[in-house]
Structures are given as structure tokens and as C-alpha cells.
Hints:
Layout: H1 2-28, H2 46-65, H3 77-102, H4 107-118, H5 133-148, H6 150-155, H7 164-169, H8 180-204, H9 209-220, H10 238-251, H11 255-262, H12 266-271, H13 273-292, H14 301-316, H15 331-343, H16 356-372, E1 384-387, E2 390-393, H17 396-422, H18 427-438, H19 454-469, H20 472-488
Antiparallel strand pairs: 1-2
Helix pairs in contact: 1-2, 1-3, 2-3, 3-4, 3-20, 4-5, 4-19, 5-9, 8-9, 8-10, 9-10, 10-14, 13-14, 13-15, 13-16, 14-15, 15-18, 16-17, 17-18, 17-19
InterPro entries: Cat_transpt
Organism: Selenihalanaerobacter shriftii
Pfam family, one: TrkH
Amino acid sequence: MRYKRLLKERYKLLIKYIGALTIGIGTFLLLPLLILFFYPEEIVYLTDFLIPSVISLIVGFLAWKLIPYEKKVTLSLKEGGIIVLISWIIAIGASAAPFVIAGDLNITQAVFEATSGWTTTGLSVVDVTKAPHVFLLWRSIMQFFGGVGLVVVMLSSVLHPYGFGLYNAEGRSDKLLPHVKRSTKAIMLIYLGYITGGVLLYILIGMTPFDAINHSIAALSTGGFSTKVNSIGHWNSLPMELITIILMILGTINFATHFTLLRGKIKTFFRNGEIRLLFFLIALFAPIVTYFSMTEIYSSLPTAFRRGIFEVVSALSTTGYSLDVFTNWNQFGVLALVLLMWIGGGTGSTAGGIKLYRIYLMFKSFIWQLKTYFLPENVIVDNYIWHGDSKAYIKEKYIRQIANYIFIYMVTYFIGVLIYLAHGYSLSKAMFEFASSLGTVGLSIGITGPDAPVTILWTEIIGMFLGRLEFFVIFFAIAKLFKDMKVLSKNN
């Protein structure tokens, strides 16, 4: 009975947090309306955003203000998981509403587009040649907040600093500073600073301000939504591609590692395993993809290498920008990108995939295991790797957790591939497309689109959602919800 009362009290706190995040979602829905000052003819879409915004604001306000809970307590990881899970579902539902109200997309397509935006995937069912500016901007805004994290935005501005469990639940584990609120503010400043720099550089080399804002946000958030059908390839500009590559690499680096670099710790920055693996993979895959795949498409070696390095960075960073289609790539090139999409970017960054940190740690674990055969018995060795600006000492338990994560990731991946195969797609196309979905990448080999089967779109929706919130947080949150609801439903 006492536990039941305590549980009710805890859920009051969770509802208050969800209410605060819902207020934030309602506010975000108003941001694309600012563009109506520059495109007044699109005023007809005003109510498409106002309706879900007002509903979100009212519901969020009621949950935040009318539920009494004044104690300052720390959230557990599982409680944070429940808040993140429900808040992200609300965000996706509210964000899909403008597309449905406008009549441009059906419910499945709208949920797909919103999920792709919030998870920073970039796969799309929207025809960008016909889409109004307000909707194109809305897609980028979703990727902005999805990339940095809904929780990070709210912790940096509104929520009290006792939410470290909430911070962890959204895939953040690094405290840039001792205080959670100061850490989230530092992340926001880094994020906004890079985006602003990207916008200015894009404008300097000829992009319109509208295109520059959208592409800078999408590149740094490793989202990949573009305002053009041919993505970055539309401009056929080497300077534009170089700026995009820099932004994609910045987006895939852990925020704690950024903080290390910005404080001038250059040597420590390059000691990081993620950084070493990132540049090693780019240096390895760019030339071999160029030689074995791009030279079959382009007669000019510089052009082939230019395409090769761009697509390698795009796949590894899980951004999803491209210079051209992939339908004419050979099987080697397709599989190479699939491998890179599996690996993904840095932990605690805006990128998806298994993550560089986990791959690097499994490699180091293999090396450590080999070394034990050459050491005297009963010797104790403290194994560590550099992460952020400090050494991270690794325990066997943590390695098992990572191995379990990689296992569940790959099981989910192959289940998704089987669904594609059941719809008649070839193995290479199925592997490419679902690697892109689960890794929140956004590259497409031609399957994803408004005419794609509903089952395929929902498979990708689930894949994107699981990939962004990293499986175990969702599993633990659902398990805790069922367990707690069972307790609360008892009469005694």
C-alpha cells in the first residue's frame, strides 16, 4: 500500500515533466510561422500549425500546473525513459498534424515524415518541389530539436537540474560541466554556434538564406533533409560540398569531445578513440569506394573521389546528404555504405548507428583479451580509453552491455531486412534501405517514397524510433510502465 502511494507520487512528477516538454513542443510548432513575414502568400497554412500548437500548449500547461508536486527529487533512468518515450511520441504526433491538416500527406506519411525529422534521419515522402516554405522549414526545425535533443533543450532553459536520469534517457551520458543545466546550456551554445557558422558560409558561396538555414541545420544535426530534389548535388559546387562535409563531421562528434577541442586540448581531442576511428574509417573507405565503385561511374578520378569521400562521410555521420542517386552503384559500393551506416557516429552526438564508441571499445576489448594470454597469471590490469577529456576505465560488465546492445541492434536490423524481402525487394536494396532507417541516416536506394507500401513505411518508422532512442531505454520504459500500471490497478 505504501509502495502504491509512493508510485502515485512519482507519476505526478513524471506527468509534470511530460507537461513541460509538451509545452515546448507546442512552442516549437509556432516557429515555422515566422517565415510568413517573408512569404505572406503562405498565410493559408497558419491554422495547420496553430491547431496542434494550441492543443499542445493547453494540454502541457494543464499537466504542468494543475498536478501538485513541489519536491525536488532526482529522476531515475527508468523514470527518465518513460518521460522521453511519451514525450517523443507526443512530439511526433503533434509534428505530423500540420501535414495531415493541410491535406498534403495521409496519417502514415505524416507520421513517417515527423519521425524522420525528430530522429534526424532525413528519409522523406514529401515532394520538395511542391512543398511550401513553411513546411520545408518545419522539417528542419524538427531536425534541429531532434538532433540536440528535446530534453537537452528543456533542461537548458526550463526544467530544474535534478533530471540527470532524464538526460541519460535521451542518449546523453557525458556531463560537459559538473551541473546538468550548465552542461545542456554548453551543448546548446556549441550547437547554435556551428549552425550559425554554417549558415554564413553557405550564404557566402551563393546559397539563398532560406536554403542556407535549412541545410546548415540538417547537416549539423546529421538529419539530411534538403530543400532540393538532388540534395547537395543540386548545386554541383565543390566549396559547398566541403562546407557540408565539415558540418557533417562536426555533427557526428560527441559534444563532450567538442568541449575538449574548444578548450584548446588538441592532444586530448585526438587521443579519443572515437575521433581516431572516425578519421581512420574515412581514410580507409573513401579511396576504396572511389576505386572499386566510383571509377565505374565517373571517367574523371577527381570527380570519382569527390563523390566517394562525400558519400562515405554522409553514410558514416548518418547525415544522408548525397550528390546523386545510388541506383547505378555496384554491389561493393552499396555494401561499403551499409557497413558505415551500421557503425554510425559518436555517442552523445546528433548521429545514429551503433556508434563509433561501441565499435572502438569492442575492438579494444579484443586487443585486451589477446594481451591477457601473454601476461603472468593473477595480474590485474586497468583497461581504459580516452573519452571526452578524460580516461574512461572499462569494466567487463560494461563490455557485456555493449555486446548485448550490438546483438539486439543487428537482430532488429535483420528482422527489418526480412520484411523488405517479403515485399519482393532485392537483398542489397533491403539491406541498404533498412540500414539507413535503423541508423537514422536518410540515404535511399529508391524504396522510400510516397508510393512505398504502408508496411515498409511503418517498418522504417519503428526502425528510426528505436535507432534514435537506442532500444534499451524504450524497452526498460515500457517494462516499467506495465509493471507500475499492474501495481496501480490493484484494489488493495
